[in-house]
Design goal:
By secondary structure, this protein is an alpha/beta fold. It is about 40% helix and about 25% strand.
């Protein structure tokens, strides 16, 4: 994969958010910390400050010992957090992350198409394929105005 530089970046002690407008993606990198309910709202505000009302896909990945509270999972599954999200990819590195990912995908059911991967490059490629296919499909819709 070629070297990429985000247009915008937010970082604190729990996570990093990077926005790549040319790819229409927002990437979240979770540090070895526990994500809590209030972090979800903060992450959402940072993301909206980058994207405005533009649609974007998300890619989540984390360090080995990242965790998320039940309250944060429930908060993050609320529909308004996904209003502009088109697709979601989750990169898992270990069994604990796979369990969290499976739980999110099965019980906090994302409203957008979502997949879990073990490889970052594969997750990124899947998102780009989905974004390009969606853009191509939109071009087929005639403008009725």
């Amino acid at each position: 994969m070629k070297e990429r530089a985000p247009a915008n970046r937010f970082e604190n002690n729990k996570y990093i958010i990077e926005y790549f407008p040319e790819e229409k993606t927002v990437e979240f990198f979770m540090k070895d910390q526990e994500i809590e309910k209030e972090d979800i709202a903060e992450m959402h505000q940072a993301t909206l400050s980058f994207t405005g009302t533009e649609n974007y896909a998300t890619l989540f990945r984390a360090m080995d010992f990242f965790s998320i509270t039940a309250e944060a999972r429930a908060e993050g599954s609320k529909r308004h957090y996904s209003a502009f999200v088109t697709f979601q990819a989750f990169v898992v590195k270990n069994m604990a992350q796979r369990l969290i990912g499976n739980f999110i995908l099965k019980f906090n059911t994302p409203i957008r198409e979502s997949r879990m991967f073990t490889d970052y490059e594969e997750a990124h490629a899947w998102l780009q394929t989905k974004i390009k296919a969606e853009a191509k499909e939109k071009k087929k819709i005639p403008n009725l105005v």
